[in-house]
Design goal:
alpha/beta; 2 domains; 10-stranded mixed sheet; 16 strands; serine-type carboxypeptidase activity
Length: 511
């Protein structure tokens, strides 16, 4: 797929009721005390880049009461001379009735964008608090939060990190942007930051996991190798939620063909398929489409204009059957229908568009004509629910008081996307570390990071088939943020629990 549509269009810091923080150390020199950072965009607001506020709570998970402390804080990013370049906001949840941290897993969580904070998974997926939405993920009022009975805090402590210029996090106005805003720069400074956090909180002995969503999957795939090679920190697992392409090449016919299974899932959801396909369950219908995509559609598109005309018409007819679009429209696109056109076309006759990140959501455009929707129906809905909830939560419940704006989308562009080898980075990390397992989680109705491309990435990461027993994929009946649907919130968290328990080693790390 076109790389631009694989980068999540989503996107901490605050201030500044500070408890004294630990002094950071670099090898060979002491780091000077952090000074308030003047964030970009509003010189009248300053950020304390090294501060914490701790509160205590409990949550009932799976019927069990779990006591924990929440640390909402900031931790600096330094240059090689110890100068503070930025303050990153984080929220850290640690269960307080566990005495042995050495056996207690630590999960480090990132969201995507690039340019969004960790809000999405923190208050809608794995964290101890859950935003107010209905069972399918739509906003409700009054806004706010409540207990998350599915949180993974029962089995693992969780750190949510907001990268530079997202949420409350800010870079110094004099800091070089190229140190932060690019595939490899992002990975490098965050690996250093994680090292400091793990040292400050005495978590070197703990089994460690990274979880990333959307662009966060690019981030954590690169971090797996960077932590291993530059910080000598080895992981037990990486969870990729709605993964990007991870730098894995799929240009040409593969790119053109791979979205068809997603089209089929979306058309099935909206009852736009023929009766014989609609009467099948989603997961019973999709293998037929996947097999057609791999075995017939890719070879057909590969022949371009030299494909036999009768064969072209036959292929277009099959695509129409699986996508809910007309054969005429598919032929007009030379068997290569762009996702943006699909979102506009599928329900055009009914006056609706479908959402990019979650095609269960419907939009209404100014006019039915056109080649793409006016707006992302699902993202508008999500921002409606998330923005009040995270501000209420951080400021009122976690007591992190600040006049800074919480940026759901932060100024991180231009973003240097060159030299993205993160899929290969993750493969190398797995090859060198026999403990390292990877799980992919995808929503069938995600049109930005679609589920079949996620499978393809998994296949290409392991061309020799040597890592298959440590790679797994899970599908869910929702979109990009599959956990917004109540049933998938339960299933997704349970899959993470099973993954963590299954990747705690019982033998030495060797082949």
């Amino acid at each position: 797929m076109n790389v631009s549509k694989k980068w999540m269009m989503f996107p901490l810091l605050a201030g500044l009721m500070a408890a004294p923080s630990l002094k950071a150390q670099q090898v060979g020199k002491a780091v000077p005390p952090a000074k308030p950072v003047a964030p970009m965009g509003n010189p009248s607001v300053t950020l304390n880049p090294d501060t914490t506020v701790t509160t205590t709570h409990d949550v009932t998970i799976k019927g069990q009461k779990v006591p924990y402390k929440a640390i909402a804080g900031t931790q600096p990013v330094w240059d090689q001379d110890g100068k503070v370049l930025a303050g990153l906001f984080y929220t850290y949840y640690e269960r307080t009735d566990v005495k042995d941290k050495a056996t207690r897993p630590l999960v480090i969580s990132f969201n995507g964008g690039p340019g969004t904070p960790s809000v999405w998974m923190q208050i809608a997926y794995t964290g101890p608090r859950l935003l107010n939405i209905d069972d399918e993920g739509y906003p409700v009022q009054p806004y706010g939060i409540h207990e998350n009975p599915e949180s993974i805090l029962d089995i693992a402590d969780i750190l949510y990190v907001d990268p530079a210029n997202t949420g409350f996090s800010r870079i110094n106005k004099d800091a070089p942007r190229e140190k932060f805003f690019g595939v490899n720069a992002d990975i490098k400074y965050l690996a250093e930051w994680i090292n400091t956090f793990v040292s400050r909180h005495n978590r070197w002995a703990s089994p460690k996991y990274l979880i990333g969503e959307s662009y966060g999957t690019t981030r954590v795939s690169g971090l797996a190798l960077e932590l291993q090679n530059a910080q000598w920190m080895y992981l037990n697992g990486v969870v990729l939620v709605s993964p990007t392409e991870l730098g894995i090449n799929r240009n040409g016919p593969v790119d053109a063909a791979m979205t068809l299974p997603y089209y089929a899932a979306t058309a099935w959801y909206h009852k736009a398929l023929s009766a014989d396909l609609q009467q099948k369950d989603l997961t019973a219908m999709l293998p037929e489409v996947e097999n057609f995509t791999i075995n017939e559609l890719i070879p057909a598109i590969s022949q371009g204009g030299f494909l036999d005309e009768q064969k072209r018409k036959s292929i277009a007819g099959r695509m129409a059957r699986y996508s809910g679009l007309s054969e005429k429209v598919i032929l007009q696109h030379n068997l290569n229908v762009p996702p943006s056109f699909f979102w506009k076309e599928l329900l055009r006759d009914k006056g609706y568009t479908v959402g990019r990140l979650d095609s269960r959501y419907l939009g209404q455009d100014r006019e039915d004509a056109g080649t793409n929707p006016d707006y992302n129906a699902e993202l508008t809905s999500w921002l409606h629910a998330f923005t009040p909830a995270i501000n209420i939560y951080l400021r009122e419940e976690l007591k992190f008081n600040t006049d800074l704006k919480y940026m759901m989308f932060g100024p991180v562009h231009p973003w240097d996307r060159s030299n993205d080898n993160t899929g290969e980075n993750l493969r190398q990390a797995m090859a060198a570390n026999p403990f390292l397992h990877v799980m992919i989680q995808s929503g069938y109705y995600d049109g930005a990071c679609d589920y079949f491309n996620a499978k393809y990435s998994m296949w290409q990461m392991d061309p020799g088939g040597r890592l298959k027993n440590r790679l797994s994929w899970k599908g869910y009946r929702s979109g990009h943020m599959m956990y917004l649907r109540k049933d998938d919130l339960t299933t997704g968290n349970e899959d993470i629990r099973t993954f963590i328990k299954g990747s705690i080693p019982k033998t030495a790390a060797k082949y």
